[in-house]
């Protein structure tokens, strides 16, 4: 699949047996248009109701220096939410694996190539940072705000149910809540995607028990990480109409990659939390 021609999941390497390459090949990247999953949510590309991005971390990145010695690094990639395409995760893993036996003059050459290829695939500029495996930037920290996971609630809905959400319009607050009970499933393989979700907002006070039931309702839902976050954002805006909203998920690593999408109301550039210990 050409990088400038987005495909569909029917053509994606996800869920298929794949030979892992040992040489660099940009053609392995498989872009998928975001629009197909946004249309059912009423999201139009020309007027996105949010700003945001997708932060990817890669923990299985290695290449050879000019003398044949392996170099290892951890990479952080940032894709803008308004890019026309996301990049299918297995194709990304295959692409990165192709660096293993490829020689580079240095880290700058690796960053330059990654930024070029990923930007072409996403259809928008992608930023790349490389870290040493002991870099302080990798240190974990807890999510800010209050955890709602210990609420004593009965739950019987395991597919997205926005009708569960409730708020008190007479009580305007600004607070940050989070839960570690987010789980969705790969839209192709059905494999579980475990994550934590942070919701920061200013507006009518959210009913916390209702919010927890709603978060858990994604437990049997099959979708990409990015679209789950957008679904949550759209539902909260529609049901509770906050003046300011941030939804961020930190998903657990699978195959050496973890994905951390965030969406916020336009005009707000939130300070994003650090990595979690479970990641």
From TrEMBL:
Q: Where is the NADPH-dependent 7-cyano-7-deazaguanine reductase N-terminal domain?
A: 20-130
Kindly list the biological process annotations in GO that this record carries. Answer: tRNA queuosine(34) biosynthetic process
Q: In which pathway does it act?
A: tRNA modification; tRNA-queuosine biosynthesis
Please give an example of a GO cellular component term from this record.
cytoplasm
Listed EC numbers: 1.7.1.13
- List keywords of the entry alphabetically: Cytoplasm, NADP, Oxidoreductase, Queuosine biosynthesis
Q: Which residues form the active site?
A: 186, 193
The subcellular location is: Cytoplasm
Q: Which Gene3D superfamilies match?
A: 3.30.1130.10
Residues annotated to bind substrate: 87-89, 225-226
Q: Which family does it belong to?
A: Belongs to the GTP cyclohydrolase I family. QueF type 2 subfamily.
> What's the protein called, per UniProt?
NADPH-dependent 7-cyano-7-deazaguanine reductase
Give the species. Salinicola corii
Q: What is the lineage of its organism?
A: Bacteria, Pseudomonadati, Pseudomonadota, Gammaproteobacteria, Oceanospirillales
């Amino acid at each position: 699949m050409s990088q400038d021609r987005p495909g569909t999941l029917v053509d994606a390497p996800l869920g298929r047996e794949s030979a892992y390459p040992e040489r660099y090949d940009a053609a392995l990247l498989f872009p998928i248009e975001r629009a197909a999953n946004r249309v059912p949510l009423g999201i139009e590309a020309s007027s996105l109701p949010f700003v945001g991005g997708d932060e990817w971390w890669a923990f299985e990145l290695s290449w050879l220096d000019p003398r044949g010695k392996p170099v290892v690094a951890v990479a952080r990639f940032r894709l803008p939410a308004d890019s026309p395409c996301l990049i299918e995760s297995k194709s990304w893993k295959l692409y990165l694996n192709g660096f293993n036996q490829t020689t580079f003059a240095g880290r700058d050459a690796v960053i330059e190539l990654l930024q070029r290829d990923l930007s072409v695939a996403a259809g928008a500029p992608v930023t790349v940072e490389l870290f040493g495996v002991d870099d302080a930037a990798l240190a974990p920290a807890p999510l800010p705000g209050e955890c709602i996971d210990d609420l004593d609630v009965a739950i019987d809905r395991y597919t997205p149910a926005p009708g569960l959400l409730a708020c008190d319009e007479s009580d305007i607050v600004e607070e940050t809540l989070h839960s570690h009970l987010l789980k969705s499933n790969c839209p192709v393989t059905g494999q579980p995607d475990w994550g934590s979700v942070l919701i920061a907002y200013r507006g009518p006070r959210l009913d916390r028990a209702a919010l927890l039931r709603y978060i858990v309702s994604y437990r049997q839902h099959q979708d990409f990480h990015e679209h789950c976050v957008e679904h949550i954002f759209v539902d909260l805006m529609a049901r509770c109409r906050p003046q300011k909203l941030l939804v961020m998920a930190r998903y657990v690593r699978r195959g050496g990659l973890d994905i951390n999408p965030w969406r916020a109301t336009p005009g707000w550039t939130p300070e994003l939390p650090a990595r979690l210990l479970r990641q």
